[in-house]
Amino acid sequence: ASAPKKTLKVMGVDISEDTIKIFAPVVVGRKGEYYQLLYDLLGKGYEKVKVDGEIRSLREQMVLSKYKKHSIDALVDEILVSEFKRPASSAGQGALERLSEAVERALTESDGLVKVEDTNGERLISAKFMCPYDGFSFPEVEPRLFSFNSPYGACPACNGLGTKHFFGSDPCLVCNGARLRPEALNVFLKGLPLEKGAKGESLEKVNIVDTTNLSIKDAYNLFNKLKLSKQDQEISKTVVKEITARLKFMLDVGLDYLTLNRRANTLSGGEAQRIRLASQLGSGLVGALYVLDEPTIGLHQRDNERLIKTLVNLRDLGNTIIVVEHDEDTIYSGDFLVDIGPGAGVHGGEVVVADNLEKLLTAKKNDSGSLTLAYLRGEKYIAVPQRRRDAEKGTLKIRGGKAYNIKNLSADIPLGRLIAVTGVSGSGKSTFLYDIVYENLRARFDKRYRTNKVYNAASFAGTEYLTRAVMIDQGAIGRTPRSNPATYTGAFTFVRELFAETSEARARGWKANRFSFNVPQARGGGRCEACEGNGTIAVEMSFLPTVYVTCDLCNGKRFMKETLEVKYKKKNIYDVLKMTVEEGLKFFEDIPAIYDRLRTLNEVGLGYLELGQSATTLSGGEAQRVKISSELYKPHLQKTIYLLDEPTVGLHYEDVQKLIDILNRLVGAGNTVMLIEHNMDIIKNADYVLDFGPEGGEGGGTLVAKGTPEQVANNPRSHTGAYLKKVL
């Protein structure tokens, strides 16, 4: 700082020669000659500049080194300090106005910076977010700063992924897995009600990452009890109200244990379904029509109750809710029942019943022919088995199981039985079945993955009692649209051989490959080459989904005209593919190889499917049942364990009964069936139950109860047990 200047007395009044200089920093530590910039400043009326700490006149010649860093400040104004000592006088007022204008001009010239120099030295002031001590500058604080999907907010090192590599799991070294740039992490929320954070540390202030690390329950408490000043309350009122409303909705559907930053691909099916619901229903609309397709998929009975409560609240707000559902509790909660049927496929498509539910349930008799109503009224029901299998056929022993929320799990799985894996949503059922059981079985039995390594457990023993493991999931059958129930079950191979045996085909010298829509004509196939045996032609639409149009050469029949001339019992190969499974059963009743395969499809409740129906048009539940049916006619010489994930999704009571019969047949043949299930009819028919819980997320991952359904029903710690008691 320069030494204070002497004061002069003019006509007895003290006059100080100290001045305040206002600079506009136009260049801050950048290389260059800046000839044009200096020339422009002179043109704008500036007289002096400070170049690298030295005051120079713009009228003198200045040569700056091109390769050195320079700082250039334009002198905007210089005002005597003594002028401010007379605020009441016109001179004092003039000095304040001059200062205000100088600061404004400096801000405009330097894009938000002002340098002030007085007797105490100089300091830099910014109109933007900047630290006055070390010059650390902040971008404008707006929502995108806190989004790792925006280049404005994402960590520059990992582009917002939070990991070092694109598919890796090592946290990014710069943001430490937070996914945001440092500026975003330095904006804090104060006035917290929480004494302890998620990891037990004391919280005085939180940034956005700390907030999203909280569970939904903790976050709800945080925003509900924020202690803000009056002004802050005014500013944040609307936002906080919206946040708490959305969090409340997730609490209502039982997702209190999830953390806000949980990755979507790690959610269970039930959790994802409820989050989608929360996003829609949290909007609090009135007079809207909501259409929900099986919202209870993947939900435990306990979570069902919460969901139903939410839907009832929505209805009471003045909305209409149409739910496609097979869940008994949800149906009973409705006001009006529409039953479509009476059967499936060609046997369906009619409204069998449409009336007030109360009236239908209390009517003296059910003469509508509705199967659904028969089950709802208790005229038909799925029985509890007379006895449960308990023969000793070996045991899979898991020790020290560890994955996601499962910590140090010990479980024994008795083989040769129907085993149900139960528990509330998010309790660790899928983790147990996929990441521990299937992962280890696959490592023992699948040639592609064979290894002695034990996955996600300290030990996994007992595989010597088995020779094969099959995961029957809801993924599509086959990998292409060409795949269909006939090809998947192997029936189509025999159909083609049958056509090749006809006198017409033999006269023409055709083999079975002539009747395949996968073999090109060049290799002896008889398919239509215009559509390559698909029956449709894919038309690529730029920026729009691909459109499929019927092939105009074969009219969607997939085969050449000559191929279609060969007939068996007056039907050509295309007619056979258009038949439903039920029609196929009658048509091929004297051909055991085809009949047996189609019969198993019919037994799993898929009699309505067309034999040639494309795999891509089947629902998850249908695809799963096609896979089960293809297992049914295999000679059960091997001891197999079948793993299923919620096979009752989308199934009616009648279909559930069929499924139970089929699963019992598989177990009766000496196999083991293990399935994740929430459907009480399946659970009460199981021989053994493994119940996970007690809660979801961090509160889960423990084996709460095990044993027969009766033993689990008597366990006070088990949520499943409480509901099992009612149905046993």
Write a brief structural summary.
This protein has 728 residues and is α+β, with helices and mostly antiparallel strands. InterPro entries: AAA+_ATPase, ABC_transporter-like_ATP-bd, ABC_transporter-like_CS, P-loop_NTPase, UvrA, UvrA_inter.
Secondary-structure topology with pairs:
Elements: E1 7-10, E2 13-16, E3 19-31, H1 35-43, E4 48-51, E5 54-57, E6 69-80, H2 90-110, E7 113-118, E8 121-126, E9 129-130, E10 137-138, H3 182-185, E11 189-190, E12 205-206, H4 208-212, H5 216-224, H6 230-252, H7 269-281, E13 289-293, H8 301-317, E14 320-324, H9 328-333, E15 336-341, E16 350-356, H10 357-362, H11 371-376, E17 395-403, E18 406-414, E19 418-423, H12 429-445, E20 459-461, E21 468-472, H13 485-489, H14 491-500, H15 503-508, E22 536-539, E23 547-550, H16 561-564, H17 573-578, H18 581-587, H19 592-603, H20 620-632, E24 640-645, H21 653-668, E25 672-676, H22 680-684, E26 688-693, E27 702-707, H23 709-713, H24 719-727
Parallel strand pairs: 13-14, 19-25, 19-26, 21-24, 24-25
Antiparallel strand pairs: 1-2, 3-6, 3-7, 4-5, 4-6, 7-8, 9-10, 11-12, 15-16, 17-18, 17-20, 22-23, 26-27
Helix pairs in contact: 5-6, 14-19, 18-19, 19-20
Pfam families: UvrA_inter
GO molecular function, one term: nuclease activity
Domain ABC transporter: 386-725
The CATH architecture of the largest domain can be named as: 3-Layer(aba) Sandwich
Tell me the strand percentage band. Answer: 15-25%
**What's the structural domain tally?**
5
Strand order of the largest sheet: 5-4-6-3-7-8
Uncertain runs with pLDDT below 50, 5 residues or more? 197-201
Q: Distance N terminus to C terminus?
A: 90 Å
Query: If you consult CATH, what is the topology of the largest domain?
Result: Rossmann fold
Give a short account of the largest sheet: 6 strands, antiparallel
Q: How many beta strands in the DSSP annotation?
A: 27
How large is the count of helical segments?
24
Q: CATH homologous superfamily of the largest domain, by name? A: P-loop containing nucleotide triphosphate hydrolases
Task: Supply the helix-strand structural class.
Answer: alpha+beta
Task: Characterize the overall form.
Answer: elongated
Nearest-angstrom radius of gyration? 38 Å
Question: Share of helix among residues?
Answer: 25-40%
Please identify the top-level CATH class of the largest domain. Alpha Beta
Average residue pLDDT = 90
